[in-house]
């Protein structure tokens, strides 16, 4: 009996080994060979044979794990001895998740298959092939090799036994792209493992407004002031203070990222370094950060930032070339005032603002004011607003260059047009030729003056002066043409009157009198036009001089005084102080003299 049992057990073991060998022959068939219609029947017959011989039902996943070591571990379902097992077709296999029940393992398998398909799509994009149908065909081909997840594909690529079959599906550069995507997938999976598995269900923390005081702002290296592109370059040194920030446990943290709690939920309590990184310059371009740090000053925190770059600023050019401009640097933030991490700016009365005027390289073109005007406001294209601070430095233009190169030549050209009335009336062709030449010269000067300005839709002061003088030359040329027509009509009238007066005793004297009278009237009209044109030219020059004088006392758009106005006010105040001191000295000396004269004089001994 014992021997029979041993021989029975040995026979069953040998039958199992033969069955697994036959399964190995089936699985190791080349993947690229077409599946014949006899393959399912062959596998079904093998499964029936193994079931009848050993009494154990072996699923496809268990075969894959036992032979190729590539699939998931599957369970072996034990049947009672002597019961015959049948291999059900795929459509008739009884479902383990009946009555609407969902299995976590099944969902994981489906998600893993979708991940493999997405991984193949990304690899195809790496090699320039964005074809969903091709990705589905490759995924199906890998499924024939029992590769359905990225982890199984990574195992297959690391196995020398299966690598050859995988290379028949993933060829050339696509194989390299798949390896790169597998590395990315592994890194993402490792990161996800580090996250907590459960999130806290607590309520979100209420917003905590943070106020930052702008206590210092220095503008240095001011250069490249360009009114055509309306830009300038500057270097800004900025210090923001958080009162009592050194005692706040959240602000003093060294972490500059957005804070998360132990469950991965944002706490909305960032550090001062995070706030420092949120400072931006809304009108800046190509901003280079040279220094950015957080320091402790007693119980306060100081956020220090030093930047250099190009800034946009709107130039008001109506009074060009006697204009004063506000060079504005806008300090803003990425934190909305009504957001989860609100951030606001304030300017205390003790704030120190200044501009470096000693190293200003454009002092021959602009006069730079040493003070800065600060204004707290909000910016934003929609209802979502962000707190900001406008720092404005005032510069006023030195107008001598434009006056000497545009205004004076234009005034001389128009005056030459007025002097054409001094030519004889009979030489009207020369008058008109000179006037036309002067008009062309005025047009060329207008183009020269436009080169100093952007494409604006209003007239500047120099534009009005140039166009006014050009209008004078144009009216002078029109007057010459009218005078020529009048002269011709007067000549024709004189000839007709001379022929009509046949009964005149002294015909020659009559003709001469008519000719003299008519020529005298034409000359008077010519002189009157000369005086009128000269007065028009002189009024234009005087108007320009008055505008120049008034513009010297006009502040900038933000109300800042020009540097020249400041100097004149300082000189006037100094002069008034000197006069007051002299008056005080004279009054004190007079009082001393009066006191000496009223004192009793002692008699001489």
From TrEMBL:
Gene3D superfamilies: Neurotransmitter-gated ion-channel transmembrane domain. Residues 33-54, 580-599 have a biased composition (Low complexity). Residues 27-62, 75-101, 555-605 are annotated as: Disordered. One of its GO terms (cellular component) is membrane. InterPro entries: Neur_channel, Neuro-gated_channel_TM_sf, Neuro_actylchol_rec. GO terms for molecular function: monoatomic ion channel activity; transmembrane signaling receptor activity. The chain crosses the membrane at residues 401-425, 432-453, 465-486, 527-546. This is Neurotransmitter-gated ion-channel ligand-binding domain-containing protein. It comes from Phaeocystis antarctica.
């Amino acid at each position: 009996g014992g021997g029979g049992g041993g021989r029975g057990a040995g026979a069953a073991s040998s039958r199992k080994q033969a069955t697994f060998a036959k399964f190995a022959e089936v699985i190791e068939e080349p993947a690229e060979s077409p599946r014949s219609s006899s393959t399912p029947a062959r596998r079904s017959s093998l499964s029936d044979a193994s079931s009848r011989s050993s009494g154990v039902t072996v699923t496809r996943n268990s075969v894959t794990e036992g032979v190729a070591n590539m699939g998931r571990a599957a369970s072996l379902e034990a049947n009672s001895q002597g019961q015959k097992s049948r291999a059900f077709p795929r459509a008739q296999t009884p479902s383990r998740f009946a009555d609407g029940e969902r299995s976590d393992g099944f969902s994981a398998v489906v998600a893993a298959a979708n991940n493999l398909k997405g991984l193949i799509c990304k690899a195809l994009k790496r090699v320039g092939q964005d074809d969903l149908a091709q990705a589905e065909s490759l995924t199906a081909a890998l499924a024939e090799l029992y590769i359905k997840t990225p982890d199984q594909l990574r195992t297959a690529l690391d196995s020398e036994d299966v690598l050859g079959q995988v290379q028949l599906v993933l060829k050339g550069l696509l194989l390299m792209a798949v390896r790169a995507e597998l590395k990315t997938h592994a890194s993402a999976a490792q990161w996800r493992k580090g996250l907590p598995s459960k999130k806290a269900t607590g309520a979100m923390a209420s917003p905590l407004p943070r106020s930052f005081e702008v206590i210092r702002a220095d503008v240095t290296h001011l250069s490249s002031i360009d009114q055509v592109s309306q830009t300038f370059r500057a270097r800004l040194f900025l210090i923001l203070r958080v009162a009592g920030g050194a005692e706040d446990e959240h602000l003093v943290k060294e972490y500059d990222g957005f804070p998360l709690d132990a469950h991965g939920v944002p706490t909305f309590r960032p550090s001062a370094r995070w706030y420092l990184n949120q400072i931006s310059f809304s009108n800046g371009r190509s901003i280079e950060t040279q220094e950015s740090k957080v320091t402790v000053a007693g119980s306060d925190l100081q956020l220090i930032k030093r930047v250099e770059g190009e800034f946009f600023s709107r130039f008001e050019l109506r009074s060009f070339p006697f204009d004063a401009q506000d060079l504005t640097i806008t300090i803003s933030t990425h934190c909305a005032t009504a957001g989860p991490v609100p951030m606001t700016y304030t300017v205390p009365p003790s704030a120190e603002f200044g501009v470096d005027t000693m190293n200003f390289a454009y002092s021959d073109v602009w006069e730079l004011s040493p003070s800065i005007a600060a204004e707290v406001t909000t910016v934003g294209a929609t209802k979502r607003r962000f707190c900001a601070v406008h720092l404005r430095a005032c510069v006023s233009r030195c107008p001598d260059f434009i006056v000497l190169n545009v205004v004076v030549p234009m005034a001389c050209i128009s005056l030459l047009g007025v002097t054409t009335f001094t030519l004889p009336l009979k030489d009207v062709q020369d008058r008109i030729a000179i006037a036309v030449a002067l008009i062309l010269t005025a047009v060329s000067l207008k183009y020269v003056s436009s080169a100093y300005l952007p494409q604006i839709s209003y007239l500047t002061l120099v534009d009005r002066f140039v166009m006014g003088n050009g209008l004078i030359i144009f009216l002078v040329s029109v007057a010459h043409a009218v005078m020529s027509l009048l002269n011709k009509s007067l000549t024709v009238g004189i000839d007709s009157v001379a022929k009509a007066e046949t009964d005149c005793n002294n015909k020659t004297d009559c003709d001469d009198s008519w000719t003299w009278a008519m020529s005298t009237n034409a000359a008077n009209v010519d002189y009157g036009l000369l005086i009128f044109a000269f007065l028009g030219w002189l009024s234009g020059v005087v108007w320009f001089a008055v505008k120049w004088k008034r513009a010297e006392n006009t502040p900038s758009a933000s109300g800042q005084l020009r540097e020249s106005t400041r100097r004149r006010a300082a000189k006037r105040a100094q002069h008034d102080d000197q006069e007051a001191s002299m008056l005080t000295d004279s009054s004190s000396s007079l009082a001393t003299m009066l006191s000496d004269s009223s004192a009793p004089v002692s008699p001489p001994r």
